[in-house]
Amino acid sequence: MKHMQTKYQFLIQQYKNNIYSYSLYMLKNHTDAEDVTQEVFIKIWENLGRFNILAAKAWIFRSTHNLCIDYLRRRNLNYKYEYSIDENYEELLVDDKIESNPHAKTHIKMMTSKVKEAIERLPDKLKSVFVLYEIQGLKYREIGKALEMPINTVKVYLLRARQKLQEELKDYGTQEVL
Fold it and tell me: Which residues of 56-72 are buried (b: 16+ CB within 10 A; e: fewer)?
């Protein structure tokens, strides 16, 4: 029993932020994201002996994704996934040089907003793959398992998502930053 608790605590510590942030990307609602996160914790506990710890990441994201789909169905959104980029995304772009430059800081805020909007306009399947790969950091194989699709499909969807974002943001990228 002690071993199971240790394994459970490890998995929760390792993935709790990823579970919550992915749920938030999918549901755009803090309360629902917290509920999904708690439900995933329960599923992890109930199935702890049924999955390989080495394959836990894909299993956890598949469970999280499926629960989010259930929540979306209950909301009658016809599978319309809504994502918003984590506020930390903006922090990743800001360094000390930019932090002290109001023009650059404003530009970063506007750029972040444009990127968020462009990601939200991606078709659902492209958006899911893009968020899991670029924001959650999953590998192709893990995304394939989580979304139950072939690895080649994951690669194609990611490529298409990047192309759509590049096309939509191409004019914005040529503007002066500093």
Answer: bbbbbbbbbbbbbeebb
141: left (phi over 0), alpha (psi -120 to 50) or beta: alpha
Condensed to tens digits (0 to 9), the pLDDT of residues 62-111 reads 899 889 888 887 775 443 444 444 444 444 444 445 556 666 666 666 77
Can you give the pLDDT at residue 93? 46
175: helix, coil or strand?
coil
The domain boundary residue, chosen from 16, 41, 74: 74
pLDDT for the residue 76: 55
Tell whether 94 and 163 lie within a shared domain. yes
Q: Quote the Cα angle for 79-89-118, to 5°.
A: 45
| Rounded Cα–Cα distance for residues 141 and 146 (Å) | 9
Mean per-residue pLDDT of the chain: 78
Number of domains in the chain: 2
Lookup: tokens for 11: 């998995």
Question: What CATH number is attached to the domain comprising 149?
Answer: 1.10.10.10
- Rounded to the nearest angstrom, the gap between the alpha carbon of residue 144 and the centroid of all alpha carbons in its chain is 14
